[in-house]
Design a protein that fits this description.
The protein is an alpha/beta fold. It contains 14 helices and 8 strands. It has helices at residues 8-12, 36-48, 64-74, 96-109, 128-140, 154-166, 184-187, 190-197, 224-230, 233-236, 238-250, 256-266, 278-285, 294-303, and strands at 17-18, 53-55, 81-86, 114-119, 144-150, 171-177, 200-204, 270-271. Helix 4 crosses helix 5, helix 11 (238-250) packs across helix 12 and helix 11 (238-250) packs antiparallel against helix 14. The structure holds NADP nicotinamide-adenine-dinucleotide phosphate (NAP).
Length: 308
């Protein structure tokens, strides 16, 4: 794999931090399960533990996530890289709407530019080429250091890559769902093609929205939408969780979350787990600096095969 010079920094980052829950009430119950103080503590401990990459989006908490990040960045003396996203709502017709949305994100975060700007979803009515052209303009205006996509299939990613290449701009990343409970990108060609193109795979929902932390069971499902989404699978994942407990013990006390994240790092991707408080953030940051063995990886993959 040849990685273009200007996106190499993304390949050097093993683990990031996802900020969807920072302001989101619908799925994540912001204000009920976690306060602004919890979030600030999660941010602080992540940075102290060496996390240098934050992922957010204009739509997370309708801008609240970006606003909180802006507040946290104000007095920070360490460099942190920030990625955010543009949602191609169907009423956003002109390419200039991407530049306007990016400027609004920058205002919320108090930044002159971001490190990565991503198209959130390949939604119709406009083809991916339309938004790839707009990304190129954002990069040319100096509003973002690099550009990426999210939830793009192998084919859509290739098409965005080709448009950007005409402008001499590399496609830096494709952010997709990937975890031991969702291994579709291994089958649909996204993982392999990204590696061939030198596109960083950013793995979202790497803990399967908390299911891989071992704290939820069929008797104790998560509240709300997540409970309904995962009600059936919670029973089926118990053997996988048991294996993760055993592997964790063999590794001197690694947690389920750490094993789930380390597996994604071993697969050559960058997981961006969400954290609602300091305890979760600290645990997740402990997923780096060590590696699962080849044997442990193969046992985990066998136990998670049925979720591919
Ligand atoms: N591009 C996209 O379309 C897209 C889609 C989804 C997510 N994302 C990005 O990916 C990030 C991460 O994905 P995600 O938030 O969906 O799911 P996730 O990282 O798989 O799970 C996060 C949730 O799991 C629980 N948790 C996290 N660490 C834990 C720990 N160490 N111990 C126990 N529980 C823990 C917390 O919820 P509870 O405490 O409530 O269980 C937390 O909010 C997002 O923040 C966002 O930046 C992108």
């Amino acid at each position: 794999m040849t990685v273009p010079e200007e996106v190499k920094f993304l390949f050097d980052i093993e683990l990031g931090l996802g900020a969807w829950a920072w302001g989101d009430k619908v799925v994540w119950h912001y204000g009920r399960t976690h306060t602004d103080e919890d979030i600030k503590n999660a941010f602080d401990i992540s940075i102290e533990s060496g996390v240098t990459f934050l992922d957010t989006a204009e739509v997370y908490g309708q801008g609240r996530s970006e606003t909180l990040i802006g507040e946290f960045l104000k007095n920070l003396d360490k460099p942190v890289l920030v990625a955010t996203k543009f949602m191609p709502f169907p009423w956003r017709i002109r390419k200039s709407s991407l530049i306007k949305a990016l400027r609004r994100s920058l205002t919320r975060m108090g930044l002159p530019s971001v490190d990565l700007y991503q198209i959130h979803w390949p939604f119709p009515p406009f083809p991916v080429e339309h938004w790839a052209e707009a990304l190129a303009e954002a990069k040319q205006l100096g509003l973002t250091k690099t550009v990426g996509v999210s939830n793009y299939s192998k084919n859509q990613m290739q098409r965005a890559y080709t448009v950007l290449a005409k402008h001499g701009i590399p496609l830096a990343s494709n952010q997709v769902e990937y975890s031991l409970l969702d291994r579709r990108i291994e089958k649909n060609g996204v993982l392999q093609r990204s590696q061939e193109l030198g596109v960083r795979v950013i793995a979202y929902s790497p803990l399967a929205k908390g299911m891989l932390t071992g704290k939820y069971t069929p008797e104790n499902p998560p509240p709300g939408i997540r409970g309904r989404q995962y009600a059936k699978i919670l029973k089926d994942i118990q053997p996988l969780l048991k294996l993760m407990t055993e592997i964790g013990q063999d590794l001197g006390g690694k947690t389920h979350a750490q094993i789930a994240l380390n597996w994604l790092i071993c697969k050559g991707t960058m997981p961006i787990p969400g954290a609602k408080n300091a305890r979760q953030a600290e645990m997740n940051a402990g997923a780096v600096g060590w590696r699962l063995s080849a044997d442990q990886i193969s046992c985990l993959e066998k136990a998670s095969e049925k979720f591919m």
